[in-house]
Amino acid sequence: MEKIGFGVIGAGIWGNSHAWIYSTEPFSELIAVCDKVEEKAKILAEKYHARRWYTDPEKMLKDPEIQAVGIATPDFAHREPFVAACQAGKHILLEKPLATNHEDLKFMKTAYEKSGVRVMVDFHARWNPPLVVAKKNIDQGTIGEIISMYYRLNDTIYVPTQMLSWAEESSILWFLGSHTVDTLRFLSGKEVKRVYSVSRAEVLVKLGVNVPDIYQSVLEMEDGIIASIENNWIIPNSHPNWNDIKLNILGSKGMFNMDLTNNQAIERYLPEKSDHPDILVMPTIHGKPSGFAHESIRDFIHRLRTSEKFVVDFEDGYRVSKVILAIMESAKTRMPVEVTYNS
Ligand SMILES: NC(=O)c1ccc[n+]([C@@H]2O[C@H](COP(=O)([O-])OP(=O)(O)OC[C@H]3O[C@@H](n4cnc5c(N)ncnc54)[C@H](O)[C@@H]3O)[C@@H](O)[C@H]2O)c1
């Protein structure tokens, strides 16, 4: 079977994961890497033995050996490479969130609908084993009708202050809140109808990073489901894992409780500190990229090859961005906001 030729756009932290997988899976081949910073494109291309590197996505997209691209540019910079890939007829695995404003969403939807390319948005939590087990139970009716959901998904302060140079141009809602909303839609199979949110901007602003610390939001979903979500990126760096994840799903006949980070599957105690090393997200196992954050990329290659429906598609990404925009509007106006998907 022929290999699918891949290009990666955005040679940063997550572009590395894309390049690693495309260059090591049996049915994909890493043809080229593109980053607007040439040195980054060159280093990543050389690391994973890509044939070429580029600084201009449009130039790379003319490459006939490339059939699909992984786009891992910063949250606010997805539109330009996405639209260019649609116009070039390349299939797309786009990092979350799909887009961070209404105008980009509109442009991207038009480009996608005209193109005929296949698009997956990388909401990799849909491959997280505990969530998949819960989803299966929910679909089988094991816990009855969903009454409410509580989902707290937070990051350490390292992320906006040291890891992401572009934190101010994104927010914790885009960076993790988009996963939160997608996961609740995935688990319940229901859409968000109305939101109410409150946010605070204290800690990061004082550190010179001009972006809110936290959003606490209530989501009213179809069938009367109430969801409470918390997203902050100011938890102390001493936290035993870079994420703080707690999830509760209350059904009419049963309930799920999940502690996906501070669970006791593995605890490491060192002279000066203790932590909970990653076992689920992206551990390297016998030299290979493992964990659910890598599994989603692998699944994209697989479904592209077999023509199976993607687990998470353009419409999911579009709807999640619409919900996040409504949450932001609510936090700004301190009023409940109806989510509109058609504007
Ligand atoms: N860092 C993570 O843990 C993580 C995890 C999952 C998903 N993501 C998502 O992946 C995306 C990338 O995040 P990251 O952490 O890798 O960011 P990053 O800042 O490490 O890398 C982004 C790269 O994109 C390049 N770039 C920017 N605009 C470009 C353009 N127009 N054309 C070509 N290259 C361009 C930058 O030079 C940079 O090298 C984001 O949407 C993010 O939400 C990140």
Care to describe what's here?
This is Scyllo-inositol 2-dehydrogenase (NAD(+)). Keywords: Oxidoreductase. This protein is of the alpha/beta class and 343 residues long. It is built from eleven helices and 17 strands. It has a seven-stranded mixed β-sheet. It has a six-stranded parallel β-sheet with strand order 3-2-1-4-5-6, sandwiched between helices. A two-stranded antiparallel sheet has the order 13-14. Helix 5 runs antiparallel to helix 11 and helix 6 packs parallel to helix 8. It is globular and about 55 Å long. The N and C termini lie far apart (43 Å). It binds nicotinamide-adenine-dinucleotide. Nicotinamide-adenine-dinucleotide (NAD) binds next to helix 1 and helix 4.
Keywords, separated by commas or semicolons:
nucleotide binding; Rossmann fold; binds nicotinamide-adenine-dinucleotide; 17 strands; oxidoreductase activity; 343 residues; Gfo/Idh/MocA_Oxidoreductases; seven-stranded mixed sheet; Dihydrodipicolinate Reductase, domain 2; 36% helix; 2 domains; single chain; six-stranded parallel sheet; alpha/beta
